[in-house]
Amino acid sequence: MDILVFSDSHGEIERMRATINCLRPDAVLHLGDGVREFETLAAEDSSRRIYLAVRGNCDRGGIEEPKERLFTWEGLRILALHGYTKGVKHGTEALERYAREQQADIVLYGHTHRKEDLYLPGVEGEKGLRLFNPGSIGDPFYPSFGVLHIKNGQVVSSCSDIDFT
User: Fold this and answer.
1) Residue 82: which region, alpha, beta or left (left: phi > 0; alpha: psi -120 to 50)?
2) Which residues lie below 8 Å from residue 91, measured CB to CB, with a gap of 6+?
3) Which residues span the domain enclosing 33?
4) How far is CA 35 from CA 6, 14, 54, 63, 77, in A?
5) Is 20 in contact with 39 (CB distance < 8 Å)?
6) Which domain CATH number covers 9?
7) Three-state secondary structure along the chain?
């Protein structure tokens, strides 16, 4: 399963549309701050692609999406949230603790507009944890997105910059 991950689109619907059309993923996730335009893309898509989103701190006014989601895909527990509720602009320690409490294998977050793809090994019997932030597809200078390829309970992840000039 290929999962395209966006965050912080801040109105850049065409960037998301172009990326989806180019990569043709099985699922698309949005980690907040641009959920309204993401919902527009989901409504337009006639494929059987899965669309999921979480609400960010800038998503206001009738946005129904939850602040976080915890789900399992191909045996991996994935926690998705925007990150502002865990103070990620000041470090990921609170996010890491929370993700481990939720027994997540992968935590997807945004808010910082900075890409991160980091594997933290487990300590004292805990399982490892992957921290994954796709950056910001809406960044005016360095737009980026992430891709998770999950197969047989294993994940290969990457964050990519894009040049829309």
Assistant:
1) alpha
2) none
3) 2-161
4) 10, 14, 7, 8, 23
5) no
6) 3.60.21.10
7) CEEEEECCCCCCHHHHHHHHHHHCCCEEEECCCCHHHHHHHHHHCCCCCEEEECCCCCCCCCCCCCCEEEEEECCEEEEEECCHHHCHHHCCHHHHHHHHHCCCCEEECCCCCCEEEEEECCCCCCCCEEEEEECCCCCCCCCEEEEEEEECCEEEEEEEECCCC
Q: Is residue 37 a contact partner of residue 6, using CB atoms and an 8 Å limit?
A: no
Q: How far apart are CA 103 and CA 67, in angstroms?
A: 18
| Count of domains observed in the chain | 1
Q: What pLDDT digit, counting tens, does each position of 113-144 carry?
A: 999 999 999 888 888 999 999 999 999 999 99
| Share of residues in the chain with pLDDT > 70 (%) | 98
